[in-house]
Specification:
Layout lengths: L4 H22 L1 H4 L1 H10 L3 H8 L5 H5 L1 H15 L4 H26 L1 H6 L1 H128 L5 H36 L7 E3 L1 H19 L6 E5 L7 E3 L1 H23 L9 E9 L4 E8 L29 H13 L2 E7 L3 E9 L2
Parallel strand pairs: 2-4
Antiparallel strand pairs: 1-3, 4-5, 5-7, 6-7
């Protein structure tokens, strides 16, 4: 058995470089790692093939090696022709495949013709190989460009994926931060609401404290009347009893005594009801508002709270003295309001008015007479009730006039005001009763608060 080693080396190198070319061309190490392991060692199959070709009857293996190798390669390239680069490579191999079939056909079917034109067939065969090599280089170059593009696209995809992950991380981190801030904000709002409720209650209790002295003064008057008329009624009853015990009764005297007793009882009843209404008003003021509107006489409410405010300040400061006046329109009808809330509004405005005139009185201005007035008016055309609370006190500086309805804003010294009175008053009038609360003031001359509420 004689082996042509030079031919074996030649075909082995040919096989090695072709397989290497295909591995690089199709990037099998990356795209098809399992198949690449087989391709990497496929060229070693040349050795057993050449050993077989030395055996009798198997020499065709050696003679047809290139043709068979090309045909097998062309078949696999054809199977993968749907890829653009593979189609280009198939175009490079196709002429060689055609020439193999032509040469084989003429060599075995028309041998004499094949021998006569052997040189032409050889030239065409060689040209097809050069075509394959040239087109193969072109296809390889094209493939490298596309591989670079794919690599760039993959790098871009990786960068985008990294950016996406980073953005997702940042979004998740930011979402967690926003959730934390939201929870903290909700807790803060809840605390603020609780604090606000406490401050509102404190403001109510403070105004109730200011009312106490005024209520004590106001309730004392009807109680004095009740006591006086009760004592007088006792004396009249005794006198009536004595007259009834006599045998000679004076009927005219008895009638007069009974008439006086009835009048006294009516007066006792009237002043008792007056005292009861004052106590009821105090209880309503201290009680948490139910939000239920009731038919209320606005003139009575304004008059009552003006007097309570004045006497409350007089009880706190014996040196304080001011005049107050009411101008109550008798045409003002009863209106549906929340009396506890509306009373707090009026009390706050009256207290502020008396405070302002008190501060101005302390300036020692000659001829100054402190005055707080309340005026009610029915504006039939607009179907509105207008309540004006006016004082001739210090007035409100223009620089702070726009802030007086803001929560916690006060012009009073620390400890003398919560800054919630006017803020609550504004909300009660505008939100609770669908009205308006406005202020007109001139620094050094006085202030006027105007409440407007709809009738009906």
């Amino acid at each position: 058995m004689k082996v042509d080693y030079s031919d074996m080396v030649e075909k082995g190198l040919f096989t090695f470089f072709v397989i290497r070319f295909l591995r690089l061309y199709f990037d099998t190490p990356t795209r098809f790692p399992e198949q690449d392991k087989i391709l990497k060692r496929a060229w070693l199959a040349v050795i057993p093939l050449f050993l077989l070709a030395s055996l009798p009857g198997l020499k065709f293996i050696n003679e047809w090696y290139y043709e068979v190798f090309v045909l097998v390669g062309a078949y696999f390239i054809y199977k993968a022709r749907y890829n653009r680069n593979t189609r280009t490579l198939f175009t490079a191999v196709l002429p060689v495949v055609i020439m193999i079939f032509i040469n084989t056909f003429f060599e075995y079917v028309f041998p004499s013709f094949y021998k006569d034109y052997d040189e032409i067939f050889g030239t065409a065969y060689g040209f097809s190989f050069f075509w394959m090599i040239g087109f193969g280089f072109y296809a390889n170059k094209q493939n490298k460009v596309e591989q670079q593009q794919r690599q760039k696209a993959e790098e871009e995809r990786i960068r985008n994926e990294a950016k996406k992950q980073e953005l997702e991380y940042q979004v998740a981190e930011r979402t967690a931060e926003l959730t934390r801030q939201k929870n903290e904000l909700e807790e803060t709002i809840a605390e603020l609401k609780a604090t606000q409720n406490q401050l509102v209650q404190a403001e109510k209790m403070a105004s109730l404290g200011e009312l106490t002295a005024g209520i004590a003064h106001e309730i004392q008057n009807p109680l004095n009347f009740v006591n006086n008329f009760s004592e007088l009624s006792v004396e009249l009853a005794k006198e009536l009893q004595e007259e009834l015990d006599r045998e000679a009764q004076d009927k005219d005297l008895i009638v007069d005594l009974v008439s006086d007793l009835v009048q006294n009882q009516e007066k006792i009843n009237h002043h008792g009801k007056r005292a009861a209404s004052i106590v009821k008003g105090m209880l309503q003021h201290s009680r948490t508002s139910t939000g239920q509107k009731e038919e209320t006489d606005m003139n009575d409410l304004a008059d009552e709270y003006l007097r309570l405010s004045y006497h409350g300040l007089r009880a706190k400061d014996k040196t304080f003295n001011a005049d107050f006046k009411t101008h109550l329109d008798p045409k003002v009808p009863k209106v549906r309001i929340i009396p506890q809330d509306f009373g707090r509004v009026l009390l706050n405005l009256f207290n502020n008015g008396f405070y302002a005139v008190q501060q101005k009185a302390r300036m020692g201005i000659d001829g100054y007479k402190p005055l707080v007035e309340v005026r009610t008016e029915l504006v039939e055309k607009d179907k509105e009730i207008v309540i004006k609370v006016t004082d001739n006190g210090t007035g409100i500086p223009e620089s702070v006039r726009n802030k007086i309805f803001q929560p916690f804003f006060t012009t009073k010294p620390t400890g003398q005001g919560t800054g919630l009175g006017l803020s609550l008053a504004f909300d009660i009038i505008t939100k609770g009763h669908g009205g308006t609360l406005e202020v007109n003031s001139k620094e050094g001359e006085g202030t006027e608060f105007v409440i407007t509420i709809p009738v009906g």
